Amino acid sequence: MSVFEAGMLICFGISWPFAIIKVLKAKSVKGVSILFLSLVFIGYICGIMHKYLYSLDWVTFLYLYNGILVFTQIVLYFIYADKK
């Protein structure tokens, strides 16, 4: 476990809810990139797989938490995409 890896995931985990709230308030995904969100989501999946296969520890849950938040943002993108 790396304290820097945990720090990065904690900072991202604090930031994602702000992006989700912004979309929910605006009911618009203008300026949101589905490609970016998809790549970030794949990155979190890769992080989870690495942790599961090689070094399972509590940081795995931070990857999972962040992945859920990004997935939520992806779902919101498709809900509000027609209003873009």
Model description:
By secondary structure, the chain is mainly α. It has one domain (3-83): Up-down Bundle (Monooxygenase). The protein contains 3 helices and no strands. The N and C termini lie far apart (41 Å). 14% of the residues are buried.
How many distinct domains? 1
Shape: elongated
Number of helices: 3
β-strand amount: under 5%
Radius of gyration: 14 Å
CATH uppermost class: Mainly Alpha
The sequence of SSEs as H and E is HHH
Looking at CATH, which topology would you report?
Answer: Monooxygenase
What's the SSE blueprint?
Elements: H1 3-26, H2 34-54, H3 59-80
Q: Which key terms come to mind for this protein?
A:
84 residues, mainly alpha, Monooxygenase, 3 helices, 0% strand
Short summary of the structure?
The chain has 84 residues and is an all-alpha fold.
